[in-house]
Amino acid sequence: MNDEHEARGERDLADRKFYPADEEAAFSDAAMPQTPQTRHPAYKLAFRDTDFLLRDELRPVRFQLELLKPEMLLDEAGVGSTLVMYGSARIPPPEAVDEALAGAKDLPDGERRVVENLAKKAKYYGEAYKLAKMVSEKSIIESGKRQFVICSGGGPSIMEAANKGASDAGAESVGLNIVLPHEQAPNPYVTPYLSFQFHYFALRKMHFLLRAKAVAVFPGGFGTFDEFFELLTLIQTGKMKPMPILLFGKDFWNRVIDFEALADEGTIGHKDLELFRWCETADEAWEKIARFYQIDGYEADPSEEGSPRTA
Predict the structure, then answer these.
(1) In terms of CB atoms within 10 Å, which end of the chain has fewer, N or C?
(2) What are phi and psi of 292, to 5 degrees?
């Protein structure tokens, strides 16, 4: 019977004549004679030789793999576009504020103020959660793929709020984690088969934006600044088409960055300040996204020059 099946396979016009890599690997393992030659690392199949793949000379190959793997798996999962959510890994959820403040009472003044400042931003954890849940519940499908799938950096705080909101809506969400010297694991709300780990920051940031149709930016630190300013640069220079960039927390951002001073100094144009839109609530953010794309019953805002209908 096996011979008959094998013969039919050999005559199948759609069948490939070369064995796939996993079968070749199995052939390599089967009854391999143990000799000095076969035991030496040089004899390993190149794609199974981890020491070889980790050599400095193989960096271009690792770049390609890190670009390709998430792209393939997201495509196979039917993810058409994403709503990316950037923000701090340190802002506590609202339910943890009282405990954090109580624990800070006896700290030195400077340290206590830091805890108090983070506690004031807990409302943004709530808004990130609401935005992710609201958008996920809409279950927008276009061209057979899910649109505005929530995508975060996969970590705690604002990132956790984003994935949790999607999870509580019964929807999938993406987490793009990065290997760091200190422990960093995916938050428990990321969809397991959409949870990715990156070695290269550059490839991680590329995947944030490859499918992005809108980006919500919450108060954050160096990482959030890096991601936010790179996105602004890409759109300012015409390397990316415009999209809604929703900047949450006007008081925070205007305190830590003087956007108007940048424009007054001439290092950016005043019109560049229109690349993003201020937001304080999830409802505001979704309205701006929906107006930009003219969905969910909203009409385009004439001031949105970059929207698909007004461009």
Answers:
(1) N
(2) -60, -45
